[in-house]
Amino acid sequence: MLTKQVEKALNDQIRVEAESSQVYLSMASWAEVKGLEGIAQFMYKHSDEERMHMLKLIKYVNERGGHAIVTDLSAPKTEYGSFQKLFQELYEHEIFVSNQINELVHVTLQEKDYATHNFLQWYVAEQIEEEALARTILDKIKLIGNDKGGLYLFDRDVQQITVDSAASDTGV
Ligand code: FEO
Q1: Where does 34-170 have alpha helices with state H?
Q2: Is residue 31 part of a domain?
């Protein structure tokens, strides 16, 4: 059984993951309209992953005798300025999510809920990988600078930059 505090904290995280999915969906749509097809596909995929993170939490809360709450969501931005800014925002958003996960883990310790603490280790590991992925992409973007040919190649190749390849790049 979940304590009320843990249930609330998990429900807050369900909302964070749902909003993350919407943010990346909006980024995907922006990129698609700009003709950045590879970046758009990358963001659509990322949006799906966030939905998966949300669903995993919903199922966990309900399995443990809580009630996962599906709420309204804040609308994401619709304009992102440039592809550089887009990925900078992705990185900052993942840092935000990591902080939220850390807070949530903290609540489970306060409540002595070691089962939920254990369940959340998957999210802790996932955040390390997602931050590494975002940093790898930002490093590549810095190399491109304002070179149009570089952007063309980046857009073509970004779909291949996966969490696994980022982890091997950074030695994680
Ligand atoms: Fe669900 Fe990108 O963290």
Answers
A1: 37-63, 83-110, 114-144, 148-157, 163-170
A2: yes
Sorted by sequence, the CB contacts under 8 Å of residue 52 that are 6+ apart come out as none
Q: Which CATH number do you get for residue 77?
A: 1.20.1260.10
- Domain-located, residue 166: no
Residue 28 counted as domain residue: yes
DSSP state for residue 80 in the 8-state scheme: -
Could you tell me the two tokens for 152?
């063309």
Q: What are 55-107's pLDDT values in tens digits?
A: 999 999 999 999 999 999 999 999 999 999 999 999 999 999 999 999 999 99
Q: Which atom of ligand 1 is nearest to the CA of 127?
A: 3
What is the token pair recorded at 67? 């009630």
Total structural domains in the chain? 1
- What residue has token string 């909302």? 15
**pTM, whole model, 2 decimals?**
0.92
User: Residue 151: which domain range?
Assistant: 4-160
- Which spans in 145-160 are helix H? 148-157
Give yes or no for residue 50 CB within 6 A of ligand 1: yes
What pLDDT band is residue 171 in, cutting at 50, 70 and 90? Answer: very low
Ligand 1 contact, 132 CB (< 6 A): no
